[in-house]
Write a structure and sequence with these properties.
AhpD-like; AhpD; mainly alpha; single chain; peroxidase; globular; Alkyl hydroperoxide reductase AhpD; peroxiredoxin activity; redox-active center
């Protein structure tokens, strides 16, 4: 099992991360599609090939082909949007925030899955990428659709744990002695 493979690859000092990975993937209030779409989208946002490979393999057991593609689409579109909107927000010249983005974002309107699920995945990716504007925007849509704060928080917790796994494994790889 892929989550188990990641857990077993984490070093002893990352015991909390290991326990949290098991917890967020096994005790969720989210639907199966929401959970595994969040896991897949945040794995992609983590940019770690091992995490992506392991979690995508397991997510494939739970997601339809359409949901799998939509989770990948959420990671892709938010990679662009998070950079753009975070930048316009951070620039001291507020005029940039009033200019038309002119970026294609058709997938947000027709993601191929339930809009709430896609918005949840976008929110989780935005948490990893650190875009406050996108977090606010997606959280508002989710709350207006009736999603409880606890479930929104759960997606953020999944993002934080997946990100921690990715960073821990990258750190371990960087610290490992080079083999020639």
């Amino acid at each position: 099992m892929s989550v188990d493979a990641l857990k077993s690859s984490l070093p002893d000092y990352a015991k909390d991360t290991k326990l949290n990975l098991g917890s967020v993937t096994s005790t969720s209030q989210l639907t199966e599609q929401q959970l595994w779409g969040t896991v897949l989208a945040t794995a992609l946002a983590s940019r770690n090939p091992v995490v992506i490979r392991e979690l995508a393999e397991e997510a494939g057991d739970y997601l339809s082909a359409e949901a799998f593609a939509a989770a990948k689409g959420a990671a892709s579109i938010m990679a662009m949007n998070n950079v753009y909107y975070r930048s316009t927000h951070l620039l001291s010249d507020e005029t940039y925030g009033t200019l038309r983005a002119g970026l294609r974002m058709n997938i947000i309107g027709k993601p191929g899955v339930d809009k709430v699920d896609f918005e949840l995945w976008c929110l989780a990716v935005s948490a990893i990428n650190g875009c406050g504007m996108c977090l606010d925007s997606h959280e508002k849509v989710l709350r207006e659709a009736g999603m409880p704060r606890e479930q929104i928080q759960e997606a953020i917790k999944i993002a934080s744990v997946v990100h921690a796994v990715a960073l821990t494994l990258e750190g371990e790889a960087a610290l490992a002695p080079a083999t020639v």
